[in-house]
Amino acid sequence: MPKFTAVSVTDAGSITLLTQYFSDRASTFPNAGGYRTTFPTAEQFVPPRGQFLLVSEQASPRTFVGCGGIRRIDDGADGAVRFEAKHLWLQPHVRGRGWGTLLLAELEKRAREFGATEMVLDTNSSLEAAGALYQRSGYEDVPPYNDNPNATNWYRKKLA
What we know:
single chain; globular
């Protein structure tokens, strides 16, 4: 089972994993040289406006194998308090264990604790496993809510 640790996005572990994440995305992005890397800023991921998590194995709690965060964004047109999931990523050797589902659920839980009534996220259609995860987790397709040049798909989930 994974363990989730809240840290700053400027923490050494965060920087290492985000660097791996961005490198992975750039190397597999459908348009060669087209991926735009944007490191997150620390103030976006400070409670109660957001949080960044590192993922580790219970047996090795200091060895981080993944990351993901949430941040508050503008409210929805219907007044929904929206948080956006960002930078969900697991190292290849821990994929397929269901940890992506657990990480997403943990981010949703923490967003609810900060008052979120809706989660949104964007992704690229080339990330088929990610798109399947979001749909399995109850996310629905929505029109673009941002201008992320890397995204081709946008999703939303109402939080109970």
